[in-house]
Amino acid sequence: MSNIRRLVQRHENLSRVLLIAIVYSLVALLGMQLAVLPGDVATVWVPAGFSLAVTLLWGPKVWPGILIGAFSTYPILNPSPVNLAIGVVTATGNTLTALVGAHLVQRFTHRPYPLHHTNHVFLFIIWGGLISQLISATFGVTALWVAQWISGSEFGHVFLTWWIANVTGVIIYAPCLLVWFTPTQQRNTRGIKNFLRQNLLEILAWLILAAIVVKFAFFEQAPIEYLMMPLLVWAVFRFPVTWTTSALVLTTSLAVIGTVQGRSIFVRDNLNASLLFLDSFIAVISIAVLVLIAILNERTQAVCDLKNAKQDLEIRVKERTQELSDVNQQLEQQQLYLKQQADSLTNALSQLKRTQAQLIQNETMTGLGQLVAGVAHEINNPIGFIHSNLTPAQEYFEDILKLLLLYQAKTPKPDPEILEFMEEIDFEFLQEDFLKLITSMRSGSERIQRIVLSLRNFSRLDEAELKAVDIHDGLDSTLLVLQHRLRDAGSPCSIQVVKHYGQLPKVECFAIYINQVFMNIINNAIDGILTRQQTETTPIQGIIQLETRLFNDSLVQILISDNGIGINPEHQTRIFEPFFTTKDVGQGTGLGLYNSYETIVTQHGGSLVCDSTPNQGTRFEITLPICK
Known about the structure:
The structure is a single chain. This protein is an alpha+beta fold and 628 residues long. Among the domains are: 1-183, Arp2/3 complex 21 kDa subunit ARPC3; 463-625, Heat Shock Protein 90 (2-Layer Sandwich). It has 21 helices and 9 strands. The strands form 3 sheets. The protein has a 5-stranded mixed beta sheet. It has a two-stranded antiparallel sheet with strand order 1-2. The two termini are 79 Å apart.
């Protein structure tokens, strides 16, 4: 079967080569009838477009047909040895031109049909026409000059005419052949009968108008030749592309025939001027029509692609919908199992969170808890007793005062000794100042109660809620709790706190946990200063600096620095690890800075950075978002 297939294919190739040779020869003989220059140089060379088109359609294997067809015209017209030699050279040039032109067009457009895109049309004209046709003109005109059919003075003019004739032949006739014989375009010609039936009047109107313009412009020398342009544009948008290119071929062919006969509007006294006008007209309308065809193809392809994309999108949406439905069913099937697992995980997570919260609370608030317990036991109860007795004491005093006033009213002439004692104790001032004294005592006791309550609330978990708070209040509350360590920390020098507070908006955060972070860092700063004071031979003034500033529209920064002992470089990378501590056993669990890091970074989405230099101090930089 394969041998038979190869034999049939060879037969088809041979038949195609012979057919190309015959058609080329006939078209060349017809074209020579339009020759106007020495050496049978025609104004428009149809075989140039024919050879390029068949090479693009069927590949370089058709070159023998082009070579035979190009050579065959010379022995037919003049079988002299010189003419045969010219024929060999010219046929070789024409064959190379077709092969090179087709290769360049396919090389730059990546397809044999170059009329689908606007840029491909221009590449087709440049490489298939302007560039490659220089080969044919060079071979042919050189052969004529060597054979002395033209003089040296005529070489340039004949070369230009030959080249222009080939280029116009390519621009006009090659697209028409490609449109008619490209398989995809052949499928587009189906339904011609329906088109004729539906658009018969429009077709007749176009033919009548075109005949009028052709008649008067190309055969009566009327200056209306460019009226063909709107007619061809009409054809591009309304008729099949095969009809449009055929109309273009017919129009330009009639223009050439009318010019050769001396009857068209392009005829001038000078032959060169006539050819210039004719070729300019052909180039303008041909390029315009080809570009319009490409633009229309691009628009049609874009619409088709859009429809395909829409259909593909609809299909994909249906597929995704079905997939989602399947996934939903699977999720529903797994929901019961996951719910059971979620319940157990929720219980475990709740227990874990409670344990973690307790660890955080125990670690960060150990010192504060002891202080609060002492205050509650040693201060709160006596203050409560005093505060509760102030009101009865005031009432008793007022009763006694009323009794004295009643005695004065009932005894108009009191005993002189009583009057003397009243003056001695300044009774009027006493009765006025005693009430003020009671009020002052009540105010003082209430203030002590508020301080105790503030200390207790500082470490309470039930106060941990997200709300907008003043960072400065948190820092000041922390300093109040640690005031006993700052004033008397067992050091010959107290620790000085320097504040550089900026203008900050309220920050949305968990105030209790942020205060615990401040407590941890300031406590560590105090410990670092104490350690350095104990190791230094000369007393140093401990300093803790608190600085706040607005970093940008969404962030605030809190800087806490000290001049304590500092942290060793090998420890700085581990200070935020859980259970890591540089303190002695029993003085810390190593969870303080770890919990601080988790609070700032994980819980609030901020950052916590430490920078420390041994024996110089440590600086912590806290960055918090204004809105969580």
